């Protein structure tokens, strides 16, 4: 079983595409800056840590409404 679960993560963001995009961007940022917002992450990998941050409500996503 994955932790955090996909069901829990989908309550935070509107689509799986957004979830993947936000997690990947944050993972890259963590690699460069060596920072994390979770004090004791369960995951050792950057993407896992990013998903934990999303699940904790520490990351969000705003859409650009270009019309």
UniProtKB/TrEMBL annotation:
The gene is rpoZ. This is DNA-directed RNA polymerase subunit omega. Its EC number is 2.7.7.6. It comes from Bacillus gobiensis. It is an enzyme of class 2 (transferase). The lineage of its organism: Bacteria, Bacillati, Bacillota, Bacilli, Bacillales. Keywords: DNA-directed RNA polymerase, Nucleotidyltransferase, Transcription, Transferase. One of its GO terms (molecular function) is DNA binding. It comes from the Bacteria. The RNAP catalytic core consists of 2 alpha, 1 beta, 1 beta' and 1 omega subunit. When a sigma factor is associated with the core the holoenzyme is formed, which can initiate transcription. GO terms for cellular component: DNA-directed RNA polymerase complex. InterPro entries: DNA-dir_RNA_pol_omega, Pol_omega/Rpo6/RPB6, RPB6/omega-like_sf.
């Amino acid at each position: 079983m994955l932790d955090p679960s996909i069901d829990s993560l989908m309550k935070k963001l509107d689509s799986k595409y957004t979830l993947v995009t936000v997690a990947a961007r944050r993972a890259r940022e963590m690699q460069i800056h060596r920072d994390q917002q979770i004090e004791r992450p369960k995951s050792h990998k950057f993407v896992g840590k990013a998903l934990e941050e999303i699940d904790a409500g520490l990351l969000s996503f705003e859409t650009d409404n270009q019309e």
